[in-house]
Amino acid sequence: MTEVRVPTLGESVTEATVATWFKKPGDAVAVDEMLCELETDKVTVEVPSPAAGTLSEIVAPEGETVGVDALLAQISAGDAKPAGDTDAPKADAAPKADAGDAPQAVDVMVPTLGESVTEATVSTWFKKVGDTVAQDEMLCELETDKVSVEVPSPAAGVLSEIIATEGTTVDATAKLAVIGGASGAASSAPAAKDEASPAPAASGKDVEDAPSAKKLMAEKGMSADQVTGSGRDGRIMKEDVMKAIASAPAATAAAPSAPRAPVSADDASREERVKMTRLRQTIAKRLKDSQNTAAMLTTYNEVDMTEVMALRNEYKDLFLKKHGVKLGFMSFFTKACIHALREVPEVNAEIDGTDIVYKNFVHMGIAAGTPTGLVVPVIRDADAMSFAGIEKAIAEKGARARDGKLSMAEMQGGTFTISNGGVYGSLMSSPILNPPQSGILGMHKIQDRPMAINGQVVIRPMMYLALSYDHRIVDGKGAVTFLVRVKEALEDPRRLLMDL
């Protein structure tokens, strides 16, 4: 008898609710076949079978709250079947594939998507059914919240079936296609395991929404059609209901303008409707969540760029010759912000529940526009880097961002962000916070303007600076002090060298 127990749920998570059982007592299960789904206040966790056999008993039914390592079910030996088998003839046919003189079918699975990424959307198929493919030839492209992932062919052969068509959302263990007549021996065990993964989807229509979600909808008088489910097969989870509740007032307020204006037949023929990419959907959601969560406020100042520009012009050739990278303005602003963050540490902190977490380091996020949307690669420990180190890191991250090659890890963990709208000609803006950060500096266009200097009107290259901050943690005094310190450091760059 094999016990099925609650897996590790994550740091500080001690309990979960049994949301859905995919199997019932008496069902035969394969190794790693999904048995049930647990729901915590943060994530949804699938529980695979630790052994092949028969599900003899379910100890924790749907809706029950269980702790870490609690007993969920028991699996008895016998009556086991391979994960991909659904009937006896298929099992009998398996040995024939091992004979070595017949072509094998190889499954094309979703590759590793990165830490914390659980699903992707099939954006483009480069091949169609019937096409001959070579090993490692690109078959399709997947799009996640942050990056695009190309899927190579695991073997040479013919693309015999496309299971996940363009626009389909797939999880991290899904099968995308099948390569028929593949050359080379394929491992039967992984194939069996992979074929087992779609099992929950086969019964998806019979799986109800999470019990905790149904209970909360009943309490709030909501119906399922008012909530968009994010769970497997579109089932509604508790957090989906909570999001719907949170957005209800905003939706109500916007109701008068929400309906699309009537469009004539002539105008409709000239319109183009394009589905938002997952990256654009994520950007939209995060920006709106930031506005809804933080008490966001923006304060402004302006900086005379004369000294920075003079210093840059004087040393840019020598800098490039020695370090192999151009001396730009971003390293000056990064250094100036690091200098200011030391004096106003709350701008480099974040709120966690009722705690304030101060960061004794600076992981600087540098916002970068790409053809697919805005991303924020993070330069880790920027406070320990030189001007040359910062410029090299910015150039390298920027190039990877434009090529769509940034990993999830490279865009996580930032403590403060700089956004340069000036490269697009922006003269003034209010940047939106990048949660859970408490501050973001907006740079703008350098413009010659008449300024009063020592009683005389002179033309100076001026730039407006904007600091958006979370007023829950940063007071107005701290925000203004931060901008003044940045201004002072840029107008007299020698202060950065002497830490003044």
TrEMBL record:
Q: Which Pfam families match?
A: 2-oxoacid_dh, Biotin_lipoyl, E3_binding
Q: Which gene encodes it?
A: sucB
Chain ranges of the Peripheral subunit-binding (PSBD) domain: 208-245
Q: What is its EC number?
A: 2.3.1.61
Region Disordered, as annotated, extends over 79-103, 185-211, 252-271
Q: What does this protein do?
A: E2 component of the 2-oxoglutarate dehydrogenase (OGDH) complex which catalyzes the second step in the conversion of 2-oxoglutarate to succinyl-CoA and CO(2).
EC category name: transferase
Native source species: Nereida ignava
Q: Per its UniProt entry, which superkingdom is the organism in?
A: Bacteria
Stated family: Belongs to the 2-oxoacid dehydrogenase family.
User: What InterPro entries does this protein map onto?
Assistant: 2-oxoacid_dehydrogenase (IPR050537), 2-oxoacid_DH_actylTfrase (IPR001078), Biotin_lipoyl (IPR000089), CAT-like_dom_sf (IPR023213), E3-bd_dom_sf (IPR036625), PSBD (IPR004167), Single_hybrid_motif (IPR011053), SucB (IPR006255)
Subunit-structure text: Forms a 24-polypeptide structural core with octahedral symmetry. Part of the 2-oxoglutarate dehydrogenase (OGDH) complex composed of E1 (2-oxoglutarate dehydrogenase), E2 (dihydrolipoamide succinyltransferase) and E3 (dihydrolipoamide dehydrogenase); the complex contains multiple copies of the three enzymatic components (E1, E2 and E3).
- The Lipoyl-binding domain covers 1-76, 105-180
Q: What is this protein called?
A: Dihydrolipoyllysine-residue succinyltransferase component of 2-oxoglutarate dehydrogenase complex
Q: In which pathway does it act?
A: Amino-acid degradation; L-lysine degradation via saccharopine pathway; glutaryl-CoA from L-lysine: step 6/6
Q: Which molecular-function annotation in GO is an example for this chain?
A: dihydrolipoyllysine-residue succinyltransferase activity
